[in-house]
Amino acid sequence: MHSSIAFASTSNMLHRSCCQATKRTLSGAHHASRIVAASHRTITSTPRLATPVPNRSASDAALFSLNRSVRSTAPAATRTLATIADTQEHRPSPLDTDIEAMRDSPDDLILKPGEEIPGFEVNNATSEMLGRPIYLDMQATTPIDPRVLDAMMPFMTNQFGNPHSRTHAYGWETEKAVEDARVQVASLIGANPKDIIFTSGATETNNMSIKGVARFYGRSGKKHIITTQTEHKCVLDSCRVLQDEGFDVTYLPVKQNGLVDLELLEKSIRPDTCLISIMTINNEIGTIQPIKEIGAIAKKHKGVFFHTDAAQAFGKIPLNVDEMGVDLMSISAHKIYGPKGIGAAYVRRRPRVRLEPIMTGGGQERGLRSGTVPAPLAVGFGEACRIAKEDMKFDHEHVKRLSDRLYNKLTSACTDIVRNGDVAGYPGCLNLSFAYIEGESLLMALKDIALSSGSACTSASLEPSYVLRALGSAEDMAHSSIRFGLGRFTTEAEVDFVAEKMVQIVRRLRDLSPLYEMVQEGIDISKIDWSQH
Ligand SMILES: Cc1ncc(COP(=O)(O)O)c(C=O)c1O
């Protein structure tokens, strides 16, 4: 009950901000989306009202995409026309009259209960009523920031040129937008924009970097790669493919907190090592690897390149490829409130890293990744980077505060909770194991919260996560683990709801657990020889 009240009020406040923003559309859509973004965090704050960006249609869409309670009733075609009006001449939209009429009346900026908003259909349902679980799976993907959508809209409509068309203005304008985006991506990691290659995401970049470097330098006999046991599947799979091609791969174990042992890493380097691939932040446990130290080790050995999968770190923590000695980096847009389907590879040119491309064709992207760069996605990615850079400190503090709040609420109400990973890891990835609870029961009970568990559900069995196994977690603890993924738009109300729900579920399941009962009675269950029973 408490939670549904919290949600209703969150939703209404957000809704109010959105509608106020819409009414202010006189000064633009960015405006609106900025308020939406801000309102997700602080609910009442309406900062940065001064940025006028004249694009009403993107605003509609942004509101629609983020606020499930407000839906534009303007026909899609009209919305497209309104977008075109931004860059060409103004064409009337059905929203114009109503919005213009509100311009001079400050009272209109306050939304009254039950009030109708011109051009919008208002649905006062809360997220619970709409049957949408609370989203705490930010490592899987993040919602698009409405400011990103605003930036993309013109390139989804009238600025549709192929950025590689050199003979006309359609191509030139999208080429410029793509190059601007490249600068924004590069600036988040202190790179030269020329070293940024657009790809479809981090999976492609990891494949391209690992296979590309190995195949190029493998020709001269450098056939050894070092990685860790806790990398993302796409890194491990790329390495397995290379093993089939005759490469030798060292999969380093990690310590209990998920960190690599630097001494062991250095000892594993051989004369034929061409690549070290170690991720920056682990997607399951949030452990942050000592990238700078790893980069320094790689630099001591001529001909050893250092690749890092930074899909979970880019835009969340400060990164600088020169300071960290990184030669190749994998980046994804949809982990930082950008669009899905685009990412980037950082590929150092000085000193030059050579890759055998996995995609060939038109020779785009320095010949390393042929194919038309999707300009709307690149623009959205660039904008997501701009926002991430500007808001990194704020976002981090916000996520840390909510993560601490969740952790403290859970651990003060329940015993026997183990935090997986490193305490100094990324706070937006909180991985906890709840002892004496059946992983499957926990999953079933959590259906109104969207999150990931340490059990990878396959058709035949529930396999515990290979990452948790690599930390040395017992199978039952790995099974009972939950990853809470918090982000820019997570609210305190959501965290409180989740904490309350988790405590209820954990208590209920433990009440049913014979193991927990034995522990309560003082029996040391680790000393029980189960085989005799
Ligand atoms: C660490 C890591 N690497 C790579 C990927 C793959 O990213 P993308 O979805 O952009 O291909 C992910 C996303 O799940 C990830 O967390």
UniProtKB/TrEMBL annotation:
Lineage: Eukaryota, Fungi, Dikarya, Basidiomycota, Pucciniomycotina
Source organism: Mixia osmundae (strain CBS 9802 / IAM 14324 / JCM 22182 / KY 12970)
Free-text function comment from the UniProt entry: Catalyzes the removal of elemental sulfur from cysteine to produce alanine. It supplies the inorganic sulfur for iron-sulfur (Fe-S) clusters. Plays a role in both tRNA-processing and mitochondrial metabolism. Involved in the 2-thio-modification of both 5-carboxymethylaminomethyl-2-thiouridine in mitochondrial tRNAs and 5-methoxycarbonylmethyl-2-thiouridine (mcm5s2U) in cytoplasmic tRNAs.
GO biological process: [2Fe-2S] cluster assembly; tRNA thio-modification; tRNA wobble uridine modification
UniProt xrefs under SUPFAM superfamilies: PLP-dependent transferases
Residue span(s) of domain Aminotransferase class V: 134-496
PANTHER family: CYSTEINE DESULFURASE, CYSTEINE DESULFURYLASE FAMILY MEMBER
Keywords, in A-Z order: Iron, Iron-sulfur, Metal-binding, Pyridoxal phosphate, Transferase
Chemical reaction(s) catalysed: (sulfur carrier)-H + L-cysteine = (sulfur carrier)-SH + L-alanine
Record-given protein name: cysteine desulfurase
Molecular function via GO: cysteine desulfurase activity; iron-sulfur cluster binding; metal ion binding; pyridoxal phosphate binding
Annotated gene: Mo02037
Family from the record: Belongs to the class-V pyridoxal-phosphate-dependent aminotransferase family. NifS/IscS subfamily.
EC code: 2.8.1.7
Cofactor needs: pyridoxal 5'-phosphate
Domain of life of the organism encoding this protein: Eukaryota
Pfam families: Aminotran_5 (PF00266)
GO cellular component, one term: mitochondrion
